[in-house]
Each structure stands twice: as structure tokens, then as C-alpha cells.
Design a protein that fits this description.
By secondary structure, the chain is an alpha+beta fold. It has two domains: 7-81 and 209-405, DD-peptidase/beta-lactamase superfamily (Beta-lactamase), CATH 3.40.710; 92-193, no CATH class. Helices cover 30% and strands 17% of the residues. It has 13 helices and 17 strands. The protein has helices at 14-29, 76-88, 130-135, 149-156, 169-178, 194-206, 210-222, 257-263, 281-292, 305-311, 322-325, 350-353, 396-405, and strands at 35-42, 45-56, 61-62, 69-70, 109-114, 119-123, 243-245, 251-253, 278-279, 296-297, 300-301, 338-340, 345-347, 362-365, 371-375, 380-385, 388-389. It has an eight-stranded antiparallel β-sheet. α1 runs antiparallel to α13 and α2 (76-88) runs parallel beside α6. The two termini are 25 Å apart.
């Protein structure tokens, strides 16, 4: 990767862009982040690219342009793209029941009261449909929320870290279908394993495993040569160490890092479309450029232009924003002024968001504090890579918005 255009040629003040580097260097110098990489593009050209700090603090190995990161929930937009590619081929309609592809989702029940030990439930008043999964309005949840008795049921079933280590993806989906929903599909928004269920639908509809579909239909066509569900052992030294924030917000080596590191080189039993990928800034940049160009990059078209436009509109019922419809659960975005499309958060009201942005900007992030966004109005993309859990530790994403938009001066 390299800077492809002088910042001034695409409307940036180069001195103002360097404020990004100075600001986030302070995070590293204060021990709040191990290291990071940031890339800013405009009109399809890289205008700013910088790294600072370490991919492994203990060994002193620096973050480099080819460093491999766990992108966690930045996997979700890729899975959503895969689903919409199959949608374009007529494999299903967005209103089709999930049970058409995963029969265990036919008779869902909704939590109404009681405890995790003795939950009270009723039959779901609405079938779960594919669009519910894409918008996180399915009623499913994540075990790590620690906000609801159903979250505890997920933990008891072995889903503390998303998918379960001892089940394949089909088994995970069947187990999730057996647990109560938080609400009737379409009634609220809750960040969840919905995108993992979409990954299973990709497998059923395409006849390929999720890793095969990603590789042959998305990664190879886009030249994303370093992205996958496992890391090649020959690339072990490129893999960033996983850090976690201590009570003071300082980055400390994750207590389960050694296990996570060892697991990185083996294809997992359950391929998580919600959070299982490793990638590089270069590869994710390729993905964001395809989205910015409305489905096409370098002559390769994954999605129709109108499909991308449709995915990046707010699909929440009644045009609500996340602040109104979300149950207060964790997400990778501040909620005010933002809706949710088919796989992305979508800015509906930049003023309500209280962070510089454009109407129609779409984005997401990962739980190790990675982030990206695409702003079609400004022809802008941003990718930020680091490895600190949880992503809520520092206001990296909002501050990155401030610093990128203040550098635009055209």
C-alpha cells in the first residue's frame, strides 16, 4: 500500500490530516493502545496512511502495513454482502422465513418473564425473516451482553464468545433456535448472532461452506489475499497480539491470548459470519472501495449499484434510529441519529449524532476497536486497525470522525 494522491488534490489539508496521527499517538504513548494503522481515501485514492506503535508490545514488533488483525464484527458487512449476492441471483426474497433454510427456526418462542433457570415463554407472533437477520431485529442476542436472562441462557449453552467451540455452524443455529427470543422479530433492535445465522443461510443457499463462498466469490475477485477464517502459519509473525483494557483503560495482553493465538492457525469448527475473520488494512480497503463504487472494483462487480444503495438505507421499522429502537445493548456505533441498513449502521441525521458525518454514511466496527466507514457524499472511506478489547474502552470512532472531517477543506 502507498499514498496514491497528494491530500490537497482531493480536498484535504495535509497538516490537518497529521492531527490524526498526533492524536492517536498519544493513546499509544499513554499505554491505552498497543498500536494502530489508519487509512483515509477520497475519490478512490489513498490520501493518508499512517501507523504507530506495536503489533506486539512485549517483543517490540511494530504495526506494519501488512499486519494481520482480528476484525471481529467487521466480518458482518462481508457476510451481508454474500447474502445480497445470493439475493440478486434469486435464491430467496428478503421476506422469506429463515425456517425455509434452517428448519429449526420454524417454531420460535419469545421470553416473557422469569429467570434464566426458569424462563417463561410464548409462541413468537411473527416469523423470523431474512431481513430481520440483516437488520438485527430478529430477537436473537449475544451471550456477552449481560443485560437479559436470555443472554445468560446463551452463556449456559456455550456461546460466551459468539459461536460455540464444540459445534459446527449448523449446530449453533439449531441451538440458537431452541432458545427464547428477546422479542417478536421486527419489534426492536438487539445486536446479536443474527449475522452468524445469515452465514449458515449462505451455506445452504449456495451449496458451499462459508469460507469457500467468501474465498471464491468475494476475496479472490477483489484481491483480498490475506483475509480468511484462519491465518497461514507462515504469516504467524504478522499477526497482531490481542490486548484488553484494564480498569484504568491501559492495554494489557489478553489473558487468553495464547489460546486465541494458537487457535488462529486452525480453521474453526463453526465459521462465524458475525465475527470470525482475520484481515489486513489493504484487504479491507479493497472491500470498502467496492462499496464506495456501488458494488464494483477494477472491473469486478459483486453487487448491482441499486442493491448497494438499498443496503445502505435505514431499514428499521418506521425509519426509527437506534436510540429509539435498540434495547440499550452493546453495539459498534453510537445510536443517536443512526439507523441500520442491511448489514451496516447508516447515518440519517448527522446533527443528532453530534459527530461530523454525512447523511447516508454507512459503517461498522469490531470488538477489538477496529472500525471503518464509507461516506458516498464525500467520496470518502476510512479504515482504522488496532487490537484492544472491548471497543467501548475509548472514544476512538467518534474522535476519528472529528479528525478526518476537520481535515476536509474544499
Amino acid at each position: 500500500m502507498e499514498i496514491e494522491v497528494e491530500p490537497g488534490e482531493v480536498g484535504f489539508d495535509p497538516d490537518r490530516l497529521r492531527r490524526i496521527d498526533r492524536h492517536f499517538a498519544q493513546y499509544v504513548d499513554a499505554g491505552k493502545l498497543p498500536g494502530w494503522l489508519v487509512m483515509v481515501t477520497r475519490r478512490g485514492k489513498v490520501a493518508h496512511l499512517a501507523t504507530h506503535g506495536m503489533r506486539d508490545v512485549e517483543s517490540g514488533a511494530p504495526v506494519e502495513q501488512d499486519t494481520l488483525f482480528r476484525i471481529y464484527s467487521m466480518t458482518k458487512p462481508i457476510t451481508s454482502t454474500a447474502i445480497m449476492m445470493l439475493f440478486e441471483e434469486g435464491a430467496f426474497e428478503l421476506t422469506d422465513p429463515v425456517s425455509d433454510f434452517i428448519p429449526s427456526f420454524a417454531d420460535l418462542r419469545v421470553y416473557t418473564g422469569g429467570t434464566a433457570r426458569a424462563p417463561q415463554t410464548r409462541p413468537a407472533g411473527e416469523e423470523m425473516r431474512i431481513w430481520h437477520l440483516l437488520t438485527h431485529t430478529s430477537g436473537l442476542t449475544y451471550a456477552f451482553h449481560y443485560l437479559h436472562p436470555v443472554d445468560e441462557l446463551y452463556r449456559q449453552a456455550g456461546f460466551e464468545n459468539g459461536v460455540a467451540d464444540d459445534m459446527d455452524l449448523a449446530g449453533c443455529c439449531d441451538e440458537w433456535a431452541s432458545l427464547p427470543l428477546l422479542f417478536d422479530p421486527g419489534a426492536a433492535w438487539n445486536y446479536s448472532v443474527s449475522t452468524d445465522v445469515l452465514g449458515r443461510i449462505v451455506e445452504v443457499a449456495s451449496g458451499q461452506t462459508l469460507d469457500e463462498f467468501f474465498r471464491t466469490r468475494i476475496f479472490e475477485p477483489l484481491g483480498m489475499t490475506d483475509t480468511g477464517f484462519a491465518v497461514d502459519r507462515s504469516d504467524a509473525d504478522r499477526l497482531a497480539t490481542l490486548y484488553v483494557a484494564d480498569p484504568e483503560g491501559k492495554a494489557r495482553r489478553h489473558p487468553k491470548h495464547d489460546l486465541a493465538h494458537a487457535a488462529a492457525f486452525e480453521l474453526p469448527k463453526a465459521l462465524s459470519g458475525g465475527g470470525g475473520l482475520f484481515s489486513t488494512a489493504h484487504d479491507y480497503h479493497r472491500f470498502t472501495q467496492m462499496l464506495l463504487r456501488r458494488g464494483e472494483l477494477d472491473g469486478t462487480r459483486l453487487l448491482g449499484s441499486r442493491t448497494v444503495d438499498y443496503m445502505t438505507r435505514n431499514h428499521l421499522p418506521g425509519g426509527a434510529d437506534l436510540e429509539t429502537l435498540a434495547l440499550g445493548s452493546f453495539s459498534e456505533a453510537a445510536n443517536a441519529g443512526k439507523g441500520f441498513g442491511l448489514g451496516f449502521s447508516v447515518v440519517d441525521d448527522p446533527v443528532a449524532a453530534k459527530v461530523p458525518s454525512s447523511k447516508g454514511e454507512f459503517a461498522w466496527g469490531g470488538m477489538a476497536s477496529t472500525a471503518f466507514w464509507v461516506d458516498p457524499q464525500e467520496e470518502l472511506t476510512v479504515v482504522f486497525m488496532t487490537q484492544l478489547m472491548p471497543s467501548s474502552t475509548h472514544p476512538i470512532r467518534s474522535q476519528l470522525h472529528q479528525l478526518v472531517y476537520q481535515a476536509l477543506v474544499d
